[in-house]
Automatic annotation (TrEMBL):
This is Kynureninase. It comes from Dictyobacter alpinus. Its cofactor is pyridoxal 5'-phosphate. Catalyzes the cleavage of L-kynurenine (L-Kyn) and L-3-hydroxykynurenine (L-3OHKyn) into anthranilic acid (AA) and 3-hydroxyanthranilic acid (3-OHAA), respectively. The modification N6-(pyridoxal phosphate)lysine is found at K233. Pyridoxal 5'-phosphate binds at T100, S101, F128, P129, S130, D131, D207, H210, Y232, W262, T288. SUPFAM superfamilies: PLP-dependent transferases. Belongs to the kynureninase family. Pathway: Amino-acid degradation; L-kynurenine degradation; L-alanine and anthranilate from L-kynurenine: step 1/1; Cofactor biosynthesis; NAD(+) biosynthesis; quinolinate from L-kynurenine: step 2/3. The gene is kynU. GO terms for molecular function: kynureninase activity; pyridoxal phosphate binding. It catalyses: 3-hydroxy-L-kynurenine + H2O = 3-hydroxyanthranilate + L-alanine + H(+); L-kynurenine + H2O = anthranilate + L-alanine + H(+).
Length: 422
């Protein structure tokens, strides 16, 4: 694709975009605002605003306790089944519960128990820090019987694939990685690494937080064991909406939830005094789900299913290729570096640009330029492409504004003290 750097070209690409109409299904409160952070907090689907009103007035206000039998009790499985279609799983292999971090805790504890005798947990230094903290906490809790092996990435962009493969051994209990890594957007080859881990007798747990809804995932084709993921990024589920977990069918009865609460109890309304895990995935529930935010996940997932994940991926790659070409032409000469793989098949749906003045440029972009990206230390400006509502015009304008910030030195008025949420 040869690109032209004019706005008319971006507008032509938008006019030809067969997913463009999905933008109207989201709340766009500020027309001038360019939102490049749907990979951190997805926009609000209009259908979720209607559902929220119904949840309050009808389901809670009017139906009261009866609502548990009118769709609330089964919501974790029902919404999980819809998410399953986005990640190549059977409907009974995905359930919605808790946060991603807590689901990681539950599945890692369960996996280590199944793998007793193996002492190593293998991961990389591109993984989301919360995932590493949870692994460290698990090791403490299990009296330091396990060892965390963190393979370093050579350049902070690409995953250390061969180092991970070389490190797998008969001591490896679990390999756990972010499928799409949060800083660089590097995308692991799930099937290849899962197969290598299985050859060593290890289980594999994939964190799909930055993949689900953006990248086609096929857990079955990869024969993946376990997975977790977030619903408030590309799934547009709303701030802090509960996360999901996946357990392959044949493992479900072998794994036990360490947080054994009544929602995971077999026949919970018998109120027996001894815990007995429910059959299937419900055993991975713990307490009563937060129904308001759980319910609001569903409209966003439905939009993704309606658009189709393969079409979304094709648009995401067209848009990230366009962004990378604009970067090369307009921004590379100004000291911006590309901190995301150039190879489309090794990239998720965001593009990270580095610059030695990254933080101050980011602040100018937000405060003076009506563009919302996010920032990841030390110098990553992350530009999230969410193909349901990101336009080519958004991308074009973002690049030109980044250029103006540097050529006109607009960042110089900002200090380097970062705000709390970047
Ligand atoms: C966003 C994200 C999470 C979020 O974890 P929470 O427990 O929901 O805060 C976890 N892992 C990865 C890789 C993420 O990108």
């Amino acid at each position: 694709m040869t690109i032209s750097t004019d706005l008319a070209y971006a507008d032509r690409l938008d006019a030809q975009d067969d997913l463009g109409h999905f933008r109207d299904r989201f709340m766009i409160a500020e027309d001038e605002l360019i939102y490049m952070d749907g990979n951190s907090l997805g926009r609000l689907p209009m259908a979720a605003t209607e559902l929220a009103t119904d949840m309050i007035h009808q389901q809670w206000g009017t139906r009261l306790i009866r609502s548990w039998n009118e769709g609330w009790f089964t919501a974790p499985e029902r919404i999980g089944a819809k998410i399953a279609h986005l990640i190549g799983a059977h409907e009974d292999e995905v359930i919605v519960a808790e946060s991603t971090s807590i689901n990681l805790f539950k599945l890692v504890m369960a996996a280590l128990r199944l793998q007793s005798g193996r002492a190593h947990i293998l991961t990389d230094d591109l993984n989301f820090p919360s995932d590493l903290y949870i692994l460290q906490g698990v090791i403490e809790l299990l009296d330091k019987q396990h060892q965390l092996e963190i393979m370093p990435s050579a350049d902070g962009v690409y995953g250390p694939v061969s180092a991970l493969q070389a490190r797998l051994s008969e001591q490896t209990a679990l390999l756990t990685l972010s499928h799409t890594v949060f800083k660089s957007g590097y995308l692991y080859d799930m099937a290849a690494l899962t197969a290598a881990a299985h050859d060593a007798g290890s289980l594999v747990l994939w964190d799909l937080s930055h993949s689900v809804g953006a990248v086609p995932v096929d857990l079955h084709a990869a024969n993946a064991d376990l997975a977790i993921g977030c619903t408030y990024k590309y799934l547009n589920g709303g701030p802090g909406a509960p996360a999901f977990l996946y357990v392959r069918r044949d493992l479900q009865e072998k794994l036990l939830n360490p947080l054994s609460g009544w929602m995971g109890q077999r026949d919970l309304f018998d109120f027996k005094l001894d815990y007995q895990p429910a059959p299937g995935l419900r055993r991975f529930l713990t307490g009563t789900p937060p129904m308001m935010s759980l319910a609001l996940i569903e409209p966003g997932v439905e939009l993704l299913l309606e658009a189709g994940i393969d079409k979304l991926r094709a648009k995401s790659l067209r848009q990230s290729n366009y962004l990378i070409q604009l970067w090369q032409r307009e921004l590379e000469p100004l000291g911006f570096t590309l901190k995301t793989p150039r190879e489309a098949q090794q990239r998720g749906s965001h593009v990270s640009l580095g610059h030695q003045e990254g933080l101050r440029i980011d602040l100018a972009l937000i405060n003076d330029m009506q563009v919302l990206p996010d920032f990841r230390a030390p110098d990553n400006i992350r530009l999230g492409i969410t193909p349901l509502y990101t336009t080519y015009r958004d991308i074009y304008q973002t690049v030109l504004r980044l250029k103006a910030i540097v050529t006109e030195r607009l960042y110089e008025k900002y200090s380097t003290d970062a705000p709390i949420v970047t």
